[in-house]
Amino acid sequence: MTDTHEYPDFQEDIFILEEINLNDEFLITGFHGLGGIGYLTTRFIVDMALKQNLGKKIGYLLGPKIPPFIEVLDNGSFGFPYELFHVENSLFFLIRLQPLVEEQPIIAQKLSDFAIKNNLKGFILLGGIDRDIFKDNVPPAVYITNSYFRGYDSILSKLEIPPAPKGILVSGGLALLITYAEHKKIPAIALFAPTRKGILDKNGALKLAKVIISMLNLNINVKEIERDIKRTEMLLKEIREKVEKEMKKESISRSDTFQIFT
Length: 262
Description:
The protein is α/β, with parallel strands linked by helices. The protein folds into two domains: 13-221, Rossmann fold; 223-262. The chain has helices at residues 37-51, 104-117, 153-158, 172-183, 202-216, 223-260, and strands at residues 13-16, 26-30, 55-62, 71-72, 78-79, 82-87, 90-95, 122-130, 142-145, 188-195. The strands form two sheets. The protein has an eight-stranded mixed sheet with strand order 1-3-6-7-2-8-10-9, sandwiched between helices. Strands 4-5 form a two-stranded antiparallel sheet. The model is unreliable at 1-7 (pLDDT under 50).
């Protein structure tokens, strides 16, 4: 007998592993944009929360357009391209792998629908801004908000975070998310840390992570990340010094050779 059951097309959706009351909580996320700031900031907070038993994975987004990769984690486990983590009083959407351009509007739509369904307080979106825009006074971050995000002026002022400069363009998934949030009347703010093009800016992401921790009153300690960044910087410095020393030796050696043949 032929099975005539019709299966609906598999679409992107958010799957919840553990039902938690998310009422009046912020959802925080960032993409792999300028300096990797959005991704790295989210990653730092999630990783430290898991290590300090202050957070847990509660879901993921899955669909036919997700990147065909997974990230290998501790003890042979793996991470989905897009995962939801509950960290103390907040929800973090970790984008491990940059979505394709055509998938970004779908993610924006799904997160917006999820925010409305679960009565979330709003979105806090994270990204980078070219620090060359600023002259002498480089702020820790700048912000833009939609018309529904209110009541945080004093916190932003205390953290010395000014509005973003007029005329800059915001692109990618972050721009889509704040646009969808405006359309669906979801409060949203985007915070941009000054950074440079062509690098993964761990220092910039760490500074922005501290801003988010302060804004949300999280109990997360980031000293381990600070130590890792300092160790990496020291190692790179040693490598640069070694290379420069070898180049000087080579230069002297060539100079001696030239003298022999003149």
